[in-house]
Design a protein that fits this description.
CATH topology: de novo design (two linked rop proteins)
CATH architecture: Up-down Bundle
Number of strands: 0
Strand content: under 5%
CATH superfamily: 23S rRNA-intervening sequence
CATH class: Mainly Alpha
Number of domains: 1
Order of helices and strands: HHHH
Helix content: over 70%
Shape: elongated
Length: about 90
């Protein structure tokens, strides 16, 4: 893989994690908000370090495995964000 492209993906995943953390700070302090906050933090911050770990993989098979983990986490966060959106837990301007 082109290292510049890999660096860009990693940087974008880090920025995504930062944005997720900022969203989490705006969630309500209710039990539901705390539960969703925990899920968002776990699944939203995991892809960046998993991708970085994958870039250091010892084999192509290991690299693919790490990227599949990233994809699973990103799919999970997509659903959690849909739940947040549908439940209107955040202000519309966020």
């Amino acid at each position: 893989m082109n290292m510049a492209k890999g660096d860009d993906i990693e940087a974008r995943l880090v920025q995504f994690a930062v944005r997720i953390i900022k969203v989490c700070t705006a969630l309500p302090k209710s039990p539901e908000g705390r539960h969703i906050r925990g899920q968002l933090v776990r699944s939203g911050t995991a892809p960046a370090p998993n991708y970085a770990e994958g870039r250091g993989a010892e084999s192509t098979k290991d690299f693919i495995h790490k990227l599949k983990i990233c994809l699973k986490e990103l799919n999970e966060i997509r659903v959690w964000l849909l739940i947040v959106q549908e439940s209107e837990m955040l202000p519309a301007n966020l």
